[in-house]
Design a protein that fits this description.
The complex is a heterodimer of chains A (115) and B (111). Chain A has 115 residues and is mainly beta. Chain A has no helices and eleven strands. Chain B starts with a strand and ends with a strand. In chain B, strands 2, 4, 5, 9, 10 and 11 form a six-stranded mixed sheet that branches. In chain B, strands 1-3-8-7-6 form a five-stranded antiparallel sheet, with no helix packed on it. The chains are: A mainly beta (115), B mainly beta (111).
Chain lengths: 115, 111
């Protein structure tokens, strides 16, 4: 389809495992965002890319979280040594450029459960 | 204190009712304002932008009060299909597209 695609859709990880979550933004979209949504909460900003440059990573909760977008298209969010509090939906979003929120498109999310 | 505060509800209303949601934001430099809708186990989707002059889209009316740092959403003639979580969203100063979400208010419309 033409929307933001995320994989895996569902991931169960044992505590201490590393996980990698993939995001395929809409083709041609310059801006890419990662958000974390815990159960019953609104999405929380994690990080933002403009093309391959990571311009804001202020929302990453710890140094166990790492995101990259090496060619300015696909992005990967990596979580090392997962902990139970990492259980959440990880939402990726993209937009055409540096414009206001009404052009931001979200993927369906990757649901991570750490057991 | 969270930057965007909403009453999580749930709001349980009968079909046809009028329901109002409110939200407050703490950063007076916030630049843009939106309501998003999120269905269960789905991604957030833009419902409407919010302006000081107020704006209406069918049964939905949104209003921004910058002086009070207060945003509202009014839904008239509620439908079963309006059942969802409504997220109040602001963007900080600067044009990054970063969104700051409230916790969300859950609406359940009953027949």
């Amino acid at each position: 389809g033409a929307g933001v695609s995320q994989s895996p859709r569902y991931k169960v990880a044992k505590r201490g495992q590393d996980v990698a979550l993939r995001c395929d933004p809409i083709s041609g979209h310059v801006s890419l965002f990662w958000y974390q949504q815990a159960l019953g909460q609104g999405p929380e900003f994690l990080t933002y890319f403009q093309n391959e440059a990571q311009l804001d990573k202020s929302g990453l909760p710890s140094d166990r979280f790492f995101a990259e977008r090496p060619e300015g298209s696909v992005s990967t969010l990596k979580i090392q040594r997962t902990q139970q509090e990492d259980s959440a939906v990880y939402l990726c979003a993209s937009s055409l450029g540096l414009v206001s929120g009404n052009t931001i498109y979200f993927g369906e999310g990757s649901w991570l459960t750490v057991v | 204190r969270k930057e965007v505060e909403q009453d999580p509800g749930p709001f349980n209303v009968p079909e046809g009712a009028t329901v109002a949601f409110n939200c407050t934001y703490s950063n007076s430099a916030s630049q843009s304002f939106f309501w998003y809708r999120q269905d269960c186990r789905k991604e957030p989707k833009l419902l409407m932008s919010v302006y000081s002059s107020g704006n209406e889209d069918g049964r939905f009316t949104a209003q921004l009060n910058r002086a009070s740092q207060y945003i509202s959403l009014l839904i008239r003639d509620s439908k079963l299909s309006d059942s969802a979580t409504y997220l109040c969203v602001v963007t900080p100063r600067g044009n990054t597209g970063k969104l700051i979400f409230g916790q969300g208010t859950t609406l359940q419309v009953k027949p």
